[in-house]
Every structure is written in C-alpha cells, then in structure tokens.
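Narrative progress, year one. The postdoctoral researcher (J.K.) led the effort to move from monomer predictions toward full complexes, under supervision of the PI. The following entry was the first complex the group processed end to end, covering 356 residues in total.
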Amino acid sequence: MAAATKTFATYGYEGTSTEALVKSMGIGRQSMYDTFGDKRALYLEALQHYCFESVGQIAVTLQATGSPLTAIEAALLGFAARIQDDSMCLGVGSICEFGRRDREVTAIGKSSAASMQNIFAATIQRGKDLGEIPPEIDPKDAARFINATFIGLKVMARGGATHDDLRATAQMALRCLG
Amino acid sequence: MAAATKTFATYGYEGTSTEALVKSMGIGRQSMYDTFGDKRALYLEALQHYCFESVGQIAVTLQATGSPLTAIEAALLGFAARIQDDSMCLGVGSICEFGRRDREVTAIGKSSAASMQNIFAATIQRGKDLGEIPPEIDPKDAARFINATFIGLKVMARGGATHDDLRATAQMALRCLG
DNA sequence: AGTTTTCTGGAACGAACAGTCAAATAAAGA
DNA sequence: TCTTTATTTGACTGTTCGTTCCAGAAAACT
C-alpha cells in the first residue's frame, strides 16, 4: 500500500499505469486485482489511508508539546526540514488532479482538510488561552492559513525548492501568529 | 491556445486526450498537429504562454499602485476574490504532475517562479524603503512566502474553498508583512 | 505427505490512446 | 474565375491502457 501511495503521488492517477503499480508494490497483477478490485479502488484506498495517517501525525505533533505555539512552529519547520526533494503529497496531488470532479476523492480531501484544520484551530485556541497567540486572531482563519502554508511548501518542494527556502518560508508564515 | 490551456489545467497532461483538445480548441485534429507538432509541444507552448501572461499580470498589479504594501494586498485579495471555483493554475498543476521529471517543464516553472519572485521582492524592498514593511523582513524570503501563499490559495480554490475562506487566508498572510 | 488455497507471470481481450493518411471542402491568392 | 493552399472530417494505424483468464508454482492447511 505504501508503494502504491508513493507511485500515485509521484505520477498522479492518470499517469500511473497498472504495470507501474504491480512493479512498485511487488505483487502479482492478479493479486492486486483480487485485493483491491480495480485501479480506482486502490487509489481511493491509498488516498484514504494517506490522509488518515497525515492527520494522525499532525495530531501527535500538535498535542504532544506543552506550548501550542512551539508545537505549530515545530510542525511547520519540521516539515520544511524533513520533506524530501521531489516528493508529492497524495492529498494535494489529488486536489490538483481531480479538483472536485470525483465525488469520492473530493469527499476524502474535504474530510481530511477539515480534521486537519480542526486540530490546528484547537491548538491556536489553546495558544490564545495561554496568551501565546494574540487574541484578535480567529482560530479557524489561522488554521486555514496554516493548511494553505503546508500546501504551498509541498508544491515548492515538489518543484525543487531548497530546504533553506522552505524553512525561510515557514518562518515568514509563523510571523502572523506573533 | 486559451482553450488548450484550460483543458490541460483541468485534466492535467496525462488526463487530457487529444480528442478533448480537438474539441475544446474547436479545430481539426490535423490542424492541431500541423500547428503544434504533438501533444507535448502543445502543452509546453501553453505552459510557456500561461506563465508569461501570469508574470505580466502580476507585474502590472504590483508596479501600478503607489503604495507597495497596498499593491501586494490588492494582488492577494484580488486573487482570492476573482479566482473561479474549481479552476486550476497550469503552472501549479505542472509542478504537481511532473515534479522535476521533465526538464523543459521544470525549466519553464523555475524561470516563471524566479520572475514572479523578483517582482515580489522588488515590491517588498520598495515597501521597506517607504517604511511600510518592517526592516527585519528579507525581501527574497517574503517573495517566496507570497508565492507559496498564492500556491496555497490556488489549491484551496481547486478543492472547493469559499471566497470568504480564501480572503481570510489572504488576510492572515498579509499579517506576516506587518 | 497430500490437499487446498493463494500467488505469480504471461497471454489475451476490448477500449482508448497519440498520431497519420486521404479525400473533400473552404479560404486565400493571382 | 481559376488555381493553390489550408482546413476539416472521418478513417486508419500501431501502441498502450485496464482488466480478465489460465496454468503452474508456492504457501498454507489437514
């Protein structure tokens, strides 16, 4: 499944052949069809799984550290430091490829974005309660902005931006929380 | 050409069939091949043209208004107000689809991003000179950040975000420049 | 050890793909 | 008006696509 996720993220749905999937997953073609049904079902399952894991990871990062602001900083800067050159996030890739054309892809994307933004908003609210984040900041707006920043970083990285560039961009984004 | 751009932006390179191009461009199949050579050449030409126009538009917006900060605000908020639901930017789409896999696509994307960011950086520098933008802000970092914000807004819009959400996100981004 | 289930790799299938060909029509030039 | 050039339309071509079929091998079960 992880191999399918990576292949779909790299080449997109249309650009990924079943041959490429069979190769990257290292299973027989018939087993792939027996297990997942068809290419689209495999894509949906990979996307669902990917989004679920991503939300889980963000939740762990933002809920583990004492200071909410530090947690958000760690999430953004950690992402900028860690993301691999040329990699693509399947979530962002699915939005770019399908827009809202496919109802199930759209549903997974919206659900995942909503969960992600709820976690950000809750963290922002905690930061406001603790006086770390200015009171005039709306948690939902800030959550959407952070999500947009993650998207921007992902596409930049996909296009070959350096880690320094990504980190500087993340630093700029964090200014609005101070 | 505009029709080809829109079709490629909507479906991506792999997802766009030559039949769809013939239909959207409203010309004969043979004429399309006579004029552009093949699908890939048409894509490259559409991408080049799209990026050139985008940079031109941003230049006009950012260089026409007296106040640099106001100009950047107008660019971001204007974009958030104007962008159409479900549309896709061919530039962002090309990065997401190809990453750095295709040398010519990558070259067009990097060149366009560099031009765009130079315009942003020059505007930021003017804002610093006029005291509108804090002196500790690095123009190149800010330029990259603004570009990342545009990317984030474009993908959000593609995923169905409302204009209010986009505007609020743009407002958050503008806080980083204050 | 024998039997059953699962997996593999290759072949086959029909549909879709990008690109080419050919004849007819329309537009441009003399 | 006639000739030349460009465009259109439909058909065609070989390749690739996603999916199914099949026989043999491997793994799991009794």
